[in-house]
């Protein structure tokens, strides 16, 4: 789940969330960018409470954990209560290190210096007429701002998502495998009949059909029906 988007849905400021959880707004901003490796359990619970979400939406936003994994978590939590404080701290330290390694691998972000980073761009995605994603367009680029947590990066082709995304802009995407995980009006990478688009998705009331909406009003919405080959490849990190 995109924590920043959820906060804005509830009309909360960074200060509102920080005051409730008991941290500064800069810490909340780091959490929204995916830096949760050192986030304490009580903070996770408080953040989930004010955002009215499940704590798992913070710990495992992509729901990558299997049922077996959830069973393991329950066993670990149950056994943690039986350990001494010293041993509990050792378990927490180990899990924190494991999470840092996982996030580092996931991001594929390399810091050159304090303000310069290199990222891998998978390819291009159309903001207009549709363009297929391809590994053949893979490139490594340098950016001046630290990228958010993401699974892959893409370059936008076209102007249909102006003013949010301009032609040539790099966007960051989290993979998604289940359409039910996509919320109404999120910005997504959609594959429709062999073409890939970056668009805002708008579902009908029963989610049986949807439209792909451009933010540039010069472009008409794209209707998606049951006859189309359609899937969501990812959600854009904003």
From TrEMBL:
GO molecular function: DNA binding
SMART domains: HTH_XRE
Gene3D superfamilies hit by this protein: lambda repressor-like DNA-binding domains, Umud Fragment, subunit A
Domain HTH cro/C1-type: 3-58
InterPro entries given in the database record: Cro/C1-type_HTH (IPR001387), Lambda_DNA-bd_dom_sf (IPR010982), LexA-like (IPR039418), LexA/Signal_pep-like_sf (IPR036286), Peptidase_S24_S26A/B/C (IPR015927)
Keywords: DNA-binding, Transcription, Transcription regulation
Entry coiled-coil feature ranges: none
UniProt-listed Pfam families: HTH_3 (PF01381), Peptidase_S24 (PF00717)
Official protein name in the record: Helix-turn-helix domain-containing protein
Organism: Ligilactobacillus salivarius
């Amino acid at each position: 789940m995109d924590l920043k988007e959820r906060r804005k849905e509830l009309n909360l400021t960074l200060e509102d969330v920080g005051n409730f959880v008991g941290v500064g707004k800069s810490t909340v901003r780091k959490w929204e960018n995916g830096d949760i490796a050192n986030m304490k359990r009580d903070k996770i619970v408080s953040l989930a409470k004010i955002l009215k979400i499940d704590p798992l939406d913070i710990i495992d936003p992509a729901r990558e954990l299997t049922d077996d994994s959830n069973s393991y978590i329950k066993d670990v939590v149950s056994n943690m209560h039986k350990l001494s404080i010293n041993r509990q701290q050792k378990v927490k330290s180990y899990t924190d290190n494991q999470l840092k390694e996982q996030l580092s691998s996931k991001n594929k972000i390399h810091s050159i210096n304090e303000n310069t980073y290199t990222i891998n761009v998978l390819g291009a995605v159309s903001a207009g007429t549709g363009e297929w994603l391809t590994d053949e367009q893979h490139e490594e680029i340098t950016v001046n701002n630290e990228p958010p947590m993401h699974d892959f990066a893409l370059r936008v082709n076209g102007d249909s998502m102006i003013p949010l995304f301009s032609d040539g802009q790099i966007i960051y995407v989290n993979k998604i495998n289940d359409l039910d995980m996509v919320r109404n009006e999120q910005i997504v990478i959609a594959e429709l009949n062999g073409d890939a688009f970056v668009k805002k998705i708008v579902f009908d009331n029963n989610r049986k059909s949807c439209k792909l909406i451009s933010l540039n009003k010069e472009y008409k919405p794209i209707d998606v029906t049951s006859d189309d080959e359609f899937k969501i490849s990812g959600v854009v990190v904003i």
